[in-house]
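Q: Two folds, back to back.
A: First:
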Amino acid sequence: MRLSCDVHVVYSLLTSPATAKPVKATLALGIKPRVKTLLTTTTKTLGDVTLLLCTGKQTKKYEVRNNVLKVFKKYVGHGKATLVLRNPSHQLYISKADPVHLEKFLKLVVLHMKPSQDQIPVHLPELPNARDLLHLDERPKLKLTITQRQNYPLRDGFPSTVETLVIQNCMLAKVDSRIIELVHLRILDLTHNKIRELPSSLANLDKLAELRLAENRLSSFPSSICQTSLSCSLKTLDLSDNQLVSLPAQFGEMVGLVSLNLANNQLHTLPYTFHRLKALQKLLLLNNKLRCLPCNMHYLHLDTLDVSGNEFANEKSVCIMQSRLGVLSLMELCGRVMNCYRIQYNSSCLPLHLCSFLDACRTCMCGKPCFVSFEHCLGPVDSRRMARTVITDSSRDIPMEAFLCSIECKKRFTGKGQLVL
């Protein structure tokens, strides 16, 4: 059993520490061999359980049985622990260790420091040579790739230090709860599995910058994820080749997204809040069932937009789909004020039906919000005004869906048979 960590050795009887600061070291637990020479024959037998401390400059050996007085493991979750020894009178302060490996290591130490007859003996390997131990690569594992189901860890778990985790072709039906515990994770690739839904606990990965879930069986994207710290940390999201029919209105809160791939799904519409993705540069919407795009997408500064392979409506001029312009109700006025001043709300302070009303906010082409009082229209827009590079099937114009909050906006944005951006 080996453990890579930082160790600070302190003499209990002296005021000054043996080492000025913690040093990188490797701890090993094993059985020290005993060599006996009788005449011309040499025999090697196994002796006591020994703790080996190996640094770049020196090596020390400590007996474990009846020599380790105390083990302090209150902060083992942070990779820290302390061993108090009798002979020599040392204290070993352990830090920067893998919490999972440290916990297993300490369990073996406790098991052998005062063994009893009722305990089942644990067979330890022979203590390794100090020179061999120095050449072992014990650096924290930052990347783990699993591409076959038989290599998927069922008992051991994942290294807690991993930052990039790739699990492909493993037929996962859900996101493993052990993945959620990897607090250092920055890139998570679960491509080509059978995941049907995403857990809301995925938001605990507050350092996650890249999430790839292509070629799964997702039918929805949880709205709870969109309103957490993940909405700012996540830069790349790949949801291609799934079964998505729609996205939640809260998807507009994913303001950190730079690249979004929604290709090869069953999307009929995009949420009205899509224009809030100000950092978005690359948007792939090919091979869906979109009839139109929300007109407020022109607020985005896209570099690449791919909308090929969709079922866009063949609109040559502006078509009024629904007209609800009239005297504004009190609820409409309150909703517009809350939206303009960005007043936060949730189900704990407002009834559920009011939260649903506020979530259904549309944005007029002038930038103002509207809820019930609006004019819903559909019209063509020159695709070259949507992004620097636009990939379409044939026509240069893309049908856009617009909501107009007043008669003045209707006159302003529906001239010349096209929606005027």
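A: Second:
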Amino acid sequence: MLYLLHKYKKLFVGNTYQFLFVHLCEVKGSKKYSTIRMELLGIKFAPLNVPLERRLQTLAAAAWLVTFTVGGIIDRHAAETGGRISPWARSWKWWKYLKDYFPLQCVKSDGAILDPNKNYLFGCFPHGVMPSGIFSLLNTNYGGFDEYFPHHERYLVTLSEQFMLPFSRELMLSLGGVASSVKSIEYILGKPGGGNVLGITVGGAKESLNSKPGIYRIVLRRRKGFVKLALRNGARLVPVFSFGQNDLFDQLDGPRLRRFQEALRKWIVIAPIIPIGRGFFQYSFGLIPRRHPVVTVVGKPIEMPKIEKPTQEDIDKYHTIFMEKLIELFEENKHKYLEEPESKKLTID
């Protein structure tokens, strides 16, 4: 490339030749391959010699975002009765490309043993702009769930409104997505015989507005409905935390913008985030998530009694226990999976 640039330098106007020559000479080494870094007007462009495997990973990450934001018609109640899981859809190679793009990893903490005869509710944090870690773990066959918990079926709660979108609705049902309604959640947690895991991103859309690189601010203190449903069905609660989840996107923010976003969120349910990621061929801006490792750590289950009509005192008691276990999980693992862990604190709103 440098040879061709030098041979045809007369074709370039002004200082363009010198600019390109300097930046093309700036070579950055890698264990797998060498990249030629290019930068123009502050935009960092992807090297031309990136391997096809990495290009496919980037494409998978972009398609994942588009699929679940642009989307039913068929069996409209399926989202409230466990969906209709397709092992074939969960095994698409596409999801492996997505996993390897970041990459995504699941880790089981000591004591994280699931009884095959019990149902479990995974309380997952943080939501991030999009919860890639818990999606890979529960909705695909590449996240490591079956390796650690082979005797359980898995589901993930998502916004009920998303099941009104064509195409993406059908895909979500095939992957184990279920609606975020009391009926839907109790259908899974109340299944006789156990052997089911339901994941829920408790902070939801409100928490996604807090998603910023290096910041772990979650929405949990007043959200107690999931604890009530676990008690009513005798399902065990499990704290789950995805380290690195908030580093995949930055977002535009500011006091006025935040007030507008909060008002709009209450109206349309979905968080109106303005994400800052990367593009297909440059790293400075775009809607594709950035490459950053995400490690999802599954904590130790919390023993829960079955109380058909739990009192507020019952709910508060186990909600407090869950918060304590979640903080404990964060503090025990941040030194393993976060940069500058001493400066990282878990803030609970």
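Q: And?
A: The two ends are 53 Å apart (CA to CA).
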